[in-house]
């Protein structure tokens, strides 16, 4: 088993490298990078945009930007950035150097790989802070939402799926199937907006807070008051994230238990006079839960990195999803690549944990004798 774990850990390295290559190549051809955005700010009405260009003052840079005429005479007419006609080439070179675009793409990529090996993601283009500090600040919020959501989904879906399997074909099975399918069809972000309208002072009741994870007087509350305040704030975001997770896991649990219930060993156990509860939870449960456990890594990663993005934005939760969303809008490449790196690494580790949980549930499974594939 130790050899299997070691092989899986070593496979993380080429997986991360491959994902970084693909995403780096895609971003290189995407329009509207940080250099173009800075040029747009300089040529627009944002008087303070040039103040971020390290060294010098905004006025100096602004006067340099106006040294050539708008018609694009001289060197300013032959630039590779849209909207840069009329800007001093020295100014453009200075912007490129600030954002690291003064080097060839392949050189930038290998520098990035070298730095990422030590979790050095550089500094954010627009936030002026090290990316690793930003990720560490935001990650606990996203992980908290993901864990609460996954926990609630499993606590509801597994008992419900077992109940549906036992009462297959009854009214209970039909109505619950209809309810979870309707919930699955509603996008999480749309349900989040509905919850705000209904319960966060939108048009009806003002019961829950609209944004944030804590109140302004958090530091003044007792530990019990802090706990209640925290649960009060995460209620709507977690509810919005869980609405779509019930359907697939509930139906997976139901079908898995139905498949096991119809097997010969179950009929043999019943023939021995065992109670239905003993048959269901003493024999069927272990075998049926294997496929459910297999879905845990995918569900957790999906909730953590996909569903949380829009939910964090809607509820103004300062998590990794909101940080990544802002980085995508601003083309803040260090944050984009750093977040992707962390997302992928966590996903691979969670997948390995899922495999180890297989062995814990059923010791007969031995991954060490199988190919890693």
Secondary-structure map with pairings?
Elements: H1 2-28, H2 34-43, H3 58-65, H4 89-98, H5 105-116, H6 131-166, H7 171-185, H8 188-199, H9 223-242, H10 246-261, H11 264-271, H12 276-294, H13 296-314, H14 320-330, H15 333-361
Helix pairs in contact: 1-15, 6-9, 6-10, 6-13, 6-15, 7-10, 8-9, 8-13, 9-13, 10-12, 12-15, 13-14, 13-15, 14-15
Characterize the structure shown.
The protein is mainly alpha-helical and 373 residues long. 68% of the residues lie in helices and 0% in strands. Helix 6 packs across helix 9, helix 9 (223-242) crosses helix 13 and helix 13 packs across helix 14. The relative contact order is 0.12. Mean pLDDT is 75; it is low at 45-79.
Give a quick account of the main beta sheet: strands, pairing sense, barrel closure.
none
Question: Approximately how much helix is present in the residues?
Answer: 55-70%
Structural class: mainly alpha
Query: Low-confidence runs (pLDDT<50, min 5 residues)?
Result: 45-79
* Total count of helical runs of at least 4 residues: 15
N to C succession of SSEs: HHHHHHHHHHHHHHH
Number of strands: 0
Give the overall form.
globular
Distance between the termini: 15 Å
Rg, rounded, reads 27 Å
Please state the average pLDDT score: 75
What is the percentage of strand-forming residues? under 5%
């Amino acid at each position: 088993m130790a050899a299997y774990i070691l092989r899986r850990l070593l496979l993380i390295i080429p997986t991360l490298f491959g994902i970084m290559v693909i995403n780096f190549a895609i971003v290189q051809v995407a329009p509207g990078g940080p250099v173009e955005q800075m040029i747009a700010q300089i040529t627009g009405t944002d008087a303070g945009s040039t103040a971020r260009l390290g060294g010098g003052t905004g006025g100096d840079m602004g006067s340099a930007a106006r040294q050539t005429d708008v018609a694009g005479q001289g060197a300013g007419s032959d630039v590779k950035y849209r909207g840069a006609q009329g800007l001093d080439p020295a100014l453009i070179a200075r912007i490129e150097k600030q954002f690291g675009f003064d080097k060839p793409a392949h050189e930038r990529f290998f520098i990035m790989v070298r730095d990422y090996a030590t979790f050095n993601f550089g500094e954010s283009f627009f936030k002026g802070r090290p990316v690793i500090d930003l990720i560490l600040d935001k990650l606990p919020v996203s992980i908290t939402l993901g864990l609460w959501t996954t926990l609630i989904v499993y606590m509801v879906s597994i008992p419900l799926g077992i109940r549906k399997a036992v009462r297959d074909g009854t009214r209970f099975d039909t109505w619950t199937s209809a309810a979870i399918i309707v919930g699955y069809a509603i996008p999480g972000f749309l349900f989040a907006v509905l919850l705000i309208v209904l319960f966060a002072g939108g048009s009806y009741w003002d019961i829950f807070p609209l944004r944030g994870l804590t109140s302004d007087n958090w530091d003044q509350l007792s530990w019990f008051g802090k706990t209640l305040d925290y649960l009060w704030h995460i209620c709507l975001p977690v509810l919005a994230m869980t609405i779509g997770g019930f359907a697939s896991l509930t139906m997976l649990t139901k079908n898995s238990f139905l498949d096991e219930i119809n097997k010969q060993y179950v009929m043999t156990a019943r023939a021995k006079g065992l109670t239905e509860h003993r048959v269901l939870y003493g024999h069927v449960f272990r075998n049926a839960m294997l496929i459910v456990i297999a879905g845990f890594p995918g569900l957790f990663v999906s909730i953590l990195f996909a569903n949380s993005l829009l939910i964090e934005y809607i509820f103004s939760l300062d998590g990794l999803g909101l940080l990544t969303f802002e980085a995508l809008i601003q083309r803040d490449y260090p944050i984009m690549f750093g977040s992707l790196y962390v997302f992928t690494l966590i996903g691979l580790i969670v997948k390995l944990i899922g495999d180890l949980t297989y062995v814990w549930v059923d010791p007969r499974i031995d991954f060490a004798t199988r190919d890693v594939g």
